[in-house]
């Protein structure tokens, strides 16, 4: 038999499966001899009061061994010889687009201007050691996109959320911890995410897709207002429908689109600064404890949202127990980002603090296509 319970327990109980079983025995009247396994389905922290509690949705297996997997597998079949679709960019948009194409029986061909996720790490190290930026391999460009070395949080404020559960299950299928299925604010971690990304690439290739690194799309091939394929910096032409998953830093792509009369429009963004604080300080404030978070709680997060003069001002990409990193994608740029390893064990926490920027705030439409004044001054 399977039973599910909504529990509100102390952190030390939530962190220990044996103590959780004992709680079920004492508070729910279960027979300890009948509990063969437990599984946490949902987990969130309630730190609104002085005593911090963990809210759990727990499944208890009574007199039976779990037969269901912790996550749902997506079936990816072979697509050799199927119609091909060109995917420009191997960030999260491009990788998930490629996996979805395989589900639909189509063969993805990914072109990525940067390097694979492991080689890319060497170029990131040079930013810190030599203060040199490879414009084709940096915190924005390369396999995994801007998120690969930027924390690995899996969270969205968007109301158009899509099938979030399926995304989390795909991450687990490719090596992410199943804890992301339960946590209210799931987090893979900068140290764990590269391997997950590699596994996604391997799935794409094993199914018959292609991934080409250090291959930049220089132009779309357009005939009679219809996209037929792309031209690349390697001189190779690839034909087929095209998915642009280039991210916002590939400004050369958008300049090309505008120059070739492809209709594009500006959208609002947010700009600001990144604040860094002692992690212990944030723990003390958020957990109402002068001694910090203790043994059983994670590094504390915070979220700030306000309206000032009719504009949104809010915290962004809060990285508890993390690091501030230089994230320029070209020379003479000052850009920073934040990231956290999976254990969030740094002595420091940081967060972006940004303000809403609207298209009409910039001088004219050409400003959007020429990043120099905005990024470099």
Automatic annotation (TrEMBL):
Matches recorded under InterPro entries: FAD-bd, FAD-binding_protein, FAD-depend_C, FAD/NAD-bd_sf
Domain of life: Bacteria
Protein name: FAD-binding protein
Pfam families on file: FAD-depend_C (PF21688), FAD_binding_3 (PF01494)
Chain ranges of the FAD-dependent protein C-terminal domain: 269-366
Gene3D superfamilies per record: 3.30.70.2700, FAD/NAD(P)-binding domain (3.50.50.60)
GO molecular function per UniProt: FAD binding
FAD-binding domain ranges (all copies): 84-228
